[in-house]
C-alpha cells in the first residue's frame, strides 16, 4: 500500500516496508499500535518503494524487512544502505526486521541500521525500541536544529562582529576625520583670533598715529557733522581762527560762522560736490576768525562716514602766500629800494597820460634825471650810503611834483618824472629848476653830508615823440646833452640833439663789428726826454678807420665802447697789438723802448685782468718792466681796496703804472701815496695854459714839484711849443709828449723816427 503524506503534527511519520501486512499480523499489530500512539504510518511493499516514498516525505523512522525483496531484487539490507547513502535520508533511523536476528546482526550494523528487531515482532519490545529510536532521532534532529541555530547564530554574530568592526572602523575614521577637521578649525580659529588681534592692534596704532597726526599737524584740521557743526578741531585750526577747545565743545564753531556771507554760493557748490563725490577739491576762500577778521585759506575736505554724514576738512593758511604774491606783484612794477614805480609801471602810466593828452589835445613832459657824482659816492662810501641817498632823492622828487604826476626810478641813479600838462608847457622849466634846487641842497646820509646835482633831459609830447618809447629815448638824449654841458642843468630835446644821438646810435652798431672787420689800428706817440729830445717810450693810441669813412676820434668812440662793454675785447686787442709791436722794435735794436698803453676802468675791474696782462706780455715775449699802464684818477677812486691789490700785483710783476690826465680829477696826494704808482702825466689842458693862464701855469708847477717830492716821475702831455717845453724843463719836469715832438703816427713812421734818432746818436 502507498500513501503520500507529510509527517504527523503530533506524532511521528513512520514508514514500514517489506512485509505483506495482512500476512504479517505482527506488523499489522505494530502498525495499529503505532497509529494508536498518534504516529502516522506509511506502508510500502518493499525497500525500493520505501525509498521512493521517503523521497516525497522524509519519515522519522523506517522499518524494513531485511529479507523482503523488491522488483529489482533489492533486499532490506540494500535498501537500508541506500537510505544511508542518500544525503536527505541518511539521518533517518532504519530499523531492520529479521527472522534471523543473531545471524543478521552484523549485516544489520554494516548496512547502517540503527537497530534490528526479531520477527515475528514482540510488540512491546518493538514499540520500546521504536520509541527509543524515535526519541533518539528527535533528539538528534533537535540537536541538528540547535547546531544549525548555533551555526546561524555564530554566523550572525560574525556578521554582527564584522558589521560592528566595520562600523567601528568607520567611526574611528570619522572620529579621525572630525578630529582633523576640528584641529584644522581650531588652528583656523586661533589664526583668526591672532589675525584679529593683530588687526585690532594695527587699528589701535593707526588710530593713535592718526590722532597724533591730526593734533600735531601744522595744517588746520577739523571734523564736521552733517549740520555743519565743527565737532573736533586741532590746535592749528584753533590758533588760525582764534577759537579754543571750549568753543568747539560748546558747538560755537560752525561752517556758517566760519564763512563770510559772500562765499555762500561757492560753499554750497563745495557742499554739493561733497554729497555727490564724497570729497571736494581744495579751493581758495576766506574764513572768519572768532574776532571777525578774515584769513585767506585753502580748504579741501572729504566725507568720513556716509551714513553719519560726517567728514574732515583741511585748512591751509594762505596769508603768507598772499602777502608774497602781493609783494611779487608790487615788486613787478615798483622799485624795491625807493618804493617808486619802476620802468614797467612808468610806461603804463605814461601810456595812459599820452592817451589822455591825445584826447584832450594837451601836452605831457617827460624828464630824465641822472644824479651827477652818484657813482663816485656809491663806490667810495659804499652801497648803504648810496641806497640811503637814492631814497632821499626819491622823497625830494616826490615833493617837487603835483598829484597826477608820476615819479619813477629806472634803476641806478636814473629817475623819471612824467608830467601831464593841462595848462601848456610853460611850467616845465620851472619844475625842472625846482628839481635841480631840491637836489642841490646837501643830503645827510649817516655821518656823511653829501652834495649831488642832477642832469635833466626833457622831452615833450607830442613834439618830441608820439609814443612812450620815442619820448623816453628823446628825454634820454637830452639828459646826455645836459651831462655834456657840465651837469647841474636841464636841457630840452632838440632835433640837433636827435641827430647827434642818431650818429651815436649808428656808431654803436658799427663798433660792434669793428674788431672782426679789422678796422682798428694803433698809432704811436713818442714820449721824450725833454732835455735830450730822446724817445724813450711810445704811447699806443687807438684809431678806428672805416672803409670810405673819415677816421673816428678816440674820444668819441672810446666812451661808447665803455658804455657797451666793447672796451673789454678792444682793450685786450690794443694791449696784445702794442706788446707785439714793442717786441718788433726791441728785436730791431730799440731794446730800451717802453710801451705806454691806456686802460679804461672797465678793463681794470674785469676779473682776471692781471692774468690777461701777463698772457699778453708772455705771448709777445716782452719784459713787464717795458710796459707802462696808464690809468685815470677815477680808477684809483673806485673800490679802493681792490685797486690796491690789483695795482700791487701789476707793480710786483714789474709793470710801470702812470696816472693819466693828472689834475682833471681829485689830484689827491693822500691817495697817491697809497698806490704803487710810478709816474704822473700832467693833463694837456694845463700844459696848454702854460704862459697863457696863470692858474694853469701855477698848477703845472705845483704838480711837478709835488711829483718830485713824492719821488714820482712826471710827464707833461700835449707839449706843443718850445715855450712849454722850456717851462716844464725849468720846473723839473724831465719828460713830455705832444705835437711839439710828434703827433701820434703809424708804426712804420714811428720806426722811421726811431731809426732817425739812432742815426743822430751815432753821428753825434
Ligand atoms: N691837442 C693836442 N692833443 C694831443 C697832443 N699830443 C697828443 N694829443 C692827443 O692827446 C691824447 C692823448 O691820449 P690820452 O690823454 O691818453 O687820451 C686818450 C685816451 O684816454 C683814450 N684812448 C686812446 N687810445 C686808447 C686805448 O687804446 N685804450 C683806451 N682805454 N683809451 C684810449 O682816448 C683819448 C684820446 O686819444 P686820442 O684821440 O688819440 O688823443 C691823444 C693824442 O692824439 C698835443 O700836443 N695837442
TrEMBL record:
<dbReference type="InterPro" id="IPR052155">
    <property type="entry name" value="Biofilm_reg_signaling"/>
</dbReference>
<feature type="domain" description="Response regulatory">
    <location>
        <begin position="16"/>
        <end position="134"/>
    </location>
</feature>
<feature type="domain" description="PAC">
    <location>
        <begin position="281"/>
        <end position="330"/>
    </location>
</feature>
<dbReference type="InterPro" id="IPR035965">
    <property type="entry name" value="PAS-like_dom_sf"/>
</dbReference>
<dbReference type="InterPro" id="IPR000700">
    <property type="entry name" value="PAS-assoc_C"/>
</dbReference>
<feature type="domain" description="GGDEF">
    <location>
        <begin position="362"/>
        <end position="495"/>
    </location>
</feature>
<feature type="coiled-coil region">
    <location>
        <begin position="136"/>
        <end position="216"/>
    </location>
</feature>
<dbReference type="Pfam" id="PF13426">
    <property type="entry name" value="PAS_9"/>
</dbReference>
<dbReference type="InterPro" id="IPR000160">
    <property type="entry name" value="GGDEF_dom"/>
</dbReference>
<dbReference type="InterPro" id="IPR000014">
    <property type="entry name" value="PAS"/>
</dbReference>
<feature type="modified residue" description="4-aspartylphosphate">
    <location>
        <position position="65"/>
    </location>
</feature>
<keyword id="KW-0175">Coiled coil</keyword>
<dbReference type="InterPro" id="IPR001633">
    <property type="entry name" value="EAL_dom"/>
</dbReference>
<dbReference type="Pfam" id="PF00563">
    <property type="entry name" value="EAL"/>
</dbReference>
<dbReference type="Pfam" id="PF00990">
    <property type="entry name" value="GGDEF"/>
</dbReference>
<dbReference type="InterPro" id="IPR043128">
    <property type="entry name" value="Rev_trsase/Diguanyl_cyclase"/>
</dbReference>
<dbReference type="InterPro" id="IPR001789">
    <property type="entry name" value="Sig_transdc_resp-reg_receiver"/>
</dbReference>
<dbReference type="InterPro" id="IPR029787">
    <property type="entry name" value="Nucleotide_cyclase"/>
</dbReference>
<protein>
    <submittedName>
        <fullName>EAL domain-containing protein</fullName>
    </submittedName>
</protein>
<keyword id="KW-0597">Phosphoprotein</keyword>
<dbReference type="InterPro" id="IPR035919">
    <property type="entry name" value="EAL_sf"/>
</dbReference>
<dbReference type="InterPro" id="IPR011006">
    <property type="entry name" value="CheY-like_superfamily"/>
</dbReference>
<feature type="domain" description="EAL">
    <location>
        <begin position="504"/>
        <end position="758"/>
    </location>
</feature>
<dbReference type="Pfam" id="PF00072">
    <property type="entry name" value="Response_reg"/>
</dbReference>
<feature type="domain" description="PAS">
    <location>
        <begin position="206"/>
        <end position="277"/>
    </location>
</feature>
Amino acid at each position: 500500500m502507498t500513501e503520500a503524506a507529510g509527517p504527523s503534527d503530533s506524532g511521528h511519520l513512520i514508514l514500514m516496508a517489506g512485509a505483506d501486512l495482512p500476512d504479517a499480523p505482527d506488523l499489522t499489530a505494530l502498525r495499529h499500535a503505532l497509529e494508536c500512539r498518534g504516529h502516522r504510518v506509511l506502508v510500502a511493499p518493499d525497500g525500493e518503494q520505501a525509498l521512493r516514498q521517503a523521497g516525497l516525505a522524509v519519515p522519522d523512522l523506517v522499518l524494513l524487512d531485511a529479507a523482503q525483496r523488491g522488483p529489482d531484487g533489492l533486499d532490506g539490507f540494500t535498501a537500508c544502505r541506500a537510505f544511508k547513502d542518500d544525503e536527505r535520508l541518511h539521518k533517518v533511523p532504519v530499523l531492520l526486521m529479521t527472522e534471523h536476528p543473531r545471524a543478521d546482526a552484523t549485516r544489520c550494523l554494516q548496512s547502517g541500521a540503527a537497530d534490528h528487531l526479531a520477527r515475528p515482532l514482540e510488540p512491546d519490545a518493538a514499540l520500546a525500541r521504536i520509541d527509543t529510536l524515535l526519541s533518539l532521532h528527535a533528539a538528534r534532529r533537535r540537536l541538528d536544529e540547535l547546531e544549525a541555530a548555533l551555526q546561524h547564530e555564530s554566523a550572525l554574530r560574525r556578521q554582527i562582529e564584522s558589521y560592528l568592526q566595520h562600523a567601528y572602523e568607520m567611526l574611528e575614521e570619522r572620529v579621525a576625520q572630525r578630529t582633523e577637521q576640528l584641529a584644522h578649525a581650531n588652528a583656523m580659529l586661533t589664526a583668526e583670533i591672532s589675525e584679529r588681534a593683530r588687526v585690532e592692534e594695527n587699528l589701535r596704532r593707526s588710530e593713535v598715529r592718526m590722532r597724533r597726526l591730526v593734533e600735531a599737524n601744522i595744517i588746520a584740521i577739523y571734523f564736521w557733522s552733517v549740520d555743519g557743526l565743527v565737532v573736533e578741531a586741532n590746535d592749528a585750526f584753533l590758533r588760525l581762527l582764534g577759537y579754543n577747545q571750549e568753543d568747539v565743545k560748546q558747538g560755537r564753531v560752525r561752517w556758517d560762522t566760519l564763512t563770510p556771507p559772500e562765499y555762500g554760493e561757492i560753499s554750497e557748490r563745495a557742499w554739493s560736490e561733497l554729497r555727490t563725490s564724497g570729497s571736494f577739491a581744495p579751493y581758495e576762500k576766506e574764513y572768519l576768525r572768532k574776532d571777525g577778521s578774515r584769513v585767506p585759506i585753502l580748504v579741501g575736505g572729504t566725507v568720513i562716514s556716509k551714513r553719519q554724514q560726517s567728514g574732515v576738512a583741511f585748512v591751509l593758511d594762505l596769508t603768507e602766500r598772499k602777502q608774497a604774491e602781493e609783494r611779487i606783484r608790487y615788486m613787478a612794477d615798483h622799485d624795491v629800494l625807493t618804493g617808486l614805480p619802476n620802468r614797467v609801471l612808468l610806461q603804463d602810466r605814461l601810456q595812459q597820460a599820452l592817451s589822455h593828452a591825445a584826447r584832450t589835445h594837451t601836452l605831457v613832459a617827460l624828464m630824465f634825471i641822472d644824479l651827477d657824482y652818484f657813482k663816485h659816492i656809491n663806490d667810495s662810501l659804499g652801497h648803504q650810503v648810496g641806497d640811503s641817498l637814492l631814497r632821499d632823492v626819491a622823497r625830494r622828487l616826490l615833493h617837487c611834483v603835483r598829484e597826477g604826476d608820476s615819479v619813477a626810478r629806472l634803476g641806478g641813479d636814473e629817475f623819471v618824472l612824467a608830467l601831464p600838462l593841462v595848462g601848456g608847457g610853460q611850467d616845465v622849466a620851472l619844475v625842472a629848476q625846482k628839481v635841480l634846487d631840491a637836489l642841490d641842497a646837501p643830503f645827510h646820509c649817516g655821518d656823511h653830508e653829501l652834495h649831488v646835482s642832477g642832469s635833466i633831459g626833457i622831452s615833450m609830447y607830442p613834439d618830441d615823440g608820439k609814443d612812450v618809447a620815442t619820448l623816453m629815448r628823446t628825454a634820454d638824449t637830452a639828459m646826455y646833452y645836459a651831462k655834456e654841458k657840465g651837469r647841474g642843468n636841464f636841457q630840452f630835446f632838440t632835433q640837433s640833439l636827435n641827430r647827434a644821438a642818431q650818429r651815436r646810435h649808428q656808431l654803436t652798431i658799427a663798433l660792434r663789428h669793428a674788431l672782426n672787420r679789422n678796422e682798428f689800428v694803433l698809432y704811436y706817440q713818442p714820449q721824450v726826454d725833454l732835455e735830450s729830445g730822446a724817445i724813450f717810450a711810445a704811447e699806443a693810441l687807438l684809431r678806428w678807420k672805416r672803409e670810405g669813412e673819415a677816421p673816428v676820434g678816440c674820444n668819441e668812440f672810446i666812451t661808447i665802447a665803455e658804455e657797451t662793454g666793447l672796451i673789454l675785447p678792444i682793450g685786450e686787442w690794443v694791449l696784445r697789438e702794442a706788446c707785439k709791436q714793442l717786441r718788433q722794435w726791441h728785436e730791431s735794436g730799440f731794446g730800451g723802448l717802453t710801451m705806454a698803453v691806456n686802460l679804461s676802468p672797465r678793463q681794470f675791474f674785469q676779473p682776471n685782468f692781471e692774468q690777461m696782462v701777463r698772457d699778453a706780455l708772455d705771448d709777445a715775449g716782452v719784459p713787464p718792466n717795458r710796459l707802462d699802464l696808464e690809468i685815470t684818477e677815477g680808477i684809483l677812486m673806485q673800490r679802493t681796496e681792490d685797486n690796491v691789490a690789483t695795482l700791487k700785483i701789476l707793480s710786483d710783476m714789474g709793470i710801470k703804472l702812470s696816472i693819466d690826465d693828472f689834475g682833471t680829477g681829485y689830484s689827491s696826494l693822500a691817495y697817491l701815496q697809497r698806490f704803487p704808482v710810478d709816474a704822473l702825466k700832467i693833463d694837456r689842458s694845463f700844459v696848454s695854459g702854460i704862459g697863457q693862464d696863470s692858474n694853469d701855469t701855477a698848477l703845472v708847477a705845483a704838480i711837478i714839484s709835488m711829483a718830485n717830492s713824492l719821488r714820482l716821475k712826471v710827464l707833461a702831455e700835449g707839449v706843443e711849443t718850445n715855450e712849454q717845453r722850456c717851462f716844464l724843463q725849468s720846473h723839473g719836469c724831465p719828460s713830455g709828449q705832444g705835437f711839439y715832438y710828434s703827433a701820434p703816427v703809424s708804426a712804420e713812421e714811428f720806426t722811421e723816427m726811431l731809426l732817425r734818432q739812432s742815426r743822430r746818436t751815432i753821428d753825434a
